[in-house]
Predict the structure.
Amino acid sequence: MMDRYGTAVLRTAYFYLGDRHLAEDASQEAFLRAYRHWPRFQGKSRVHTWLTRIVINVCRDKMRLKRTSAEEPTDPIELKGTPRISVEEEALARLSRTVILQQVLKLPAHYHEVLYLYYYLEFSTKEIAEVIDLPEGTVRGRLHRARQLLGERLREEGYTP
Amino acid sequence: MNDTDGILRERYAKEADEVWFRDLEMDERLKSSIRAQLLTIEPRRKRRNAAWRRRVYPLASAAAVLILIAALQFGIPDNPLDTVIEKGNVESNVPEGTDIATGTPMSTLMDPDGVGGRRAMASIEDAKAVFAGRLLVPAYVPDGFVLTEISAYGESEATADKIVLRYTAADAGEFTLAASLSEEQPVPGCPNGGESIRIGDEQGCLQTAADGSNEIYLTTDKTVYVLTGNLPADQLTAIAETLTIPGGE
């Protein structure tokens, strides 16, 4: 399971937490939780979806803890607004060379999560609803608006896919 | 997804790999660390289960005595199983000369795991139908064991995706076979610890709890089979090795 989904789980944790060490801790905890619940895995969803839901919950727990113990806000959505991921100059330089990510980061924070799950993890709206615990209709609406805004911004920048 | 979406998805993934996730892989160091954690957690989990059992068993015993008193007071039907399991549907699992009526009556409780509603099924044929005929059941059960419960779990009978067969013996405890459908091929072997074993042509996994109970995991044909019971590992393995589709294929 780790061989197959380990990197995806680690990257999702990194997406939420924006820190490699925290992401490794979260991935470790996610696999331990998955191990404990493996006998009860019903196969109602894909293993990848199930694991993603677990790791997102772990990340949310960690952010909740951090929020209560530190003054710094750690909303995962805000991470992209103030891109902690790209604090290094090199990363900023790489980001400046991107087309899509630059525009994604300019969108309101709550759209980043659905775009990541939809575009990067290639989840369906049903799966996204499952992993972030929202009604599928809400996810559809949010994703529709996110893609619409992203399209507008890309057109403004002269990018036509 | 339209073409534009496809292009955006491809571009998003490429840029995310280059900018956010560059060199971010789950390496052997992290995997080893997780495996080490798994080894330390296993005994703790079992101990907690054992403590839970110590707390619950006295209450369960008291409840059983009350039920027995109530049953003696109001009487019991001659053969409570006749209404739920038709005789003749489970011959291959019932040792010769054993009366199925001596088994445990079927429970009408909801799923104790809280996973969907439980529905009692009348026969193995009904249970097979839930799995489109692909349900494997043991052709061999140890002497004294009889099939006493067939349950389907799911939001409705049409969407049931788990079948549990319970076998009990008057003085030798019980074992269960739980079969869960999966949308994709489940990970075979022991993805999370345990002893990897061969079950016929398949890779299975044996886990032994501190209280001596054993569990065998087997994945086949997009289905996860879990055989659990207080039987010795070799006996449980022998049962697992006879898993076949009853009456065919």
Confidence is low (pLDDT under 50) at residues 71-87 of chain A. The first helix of chain A runs from residue 2 to 17.
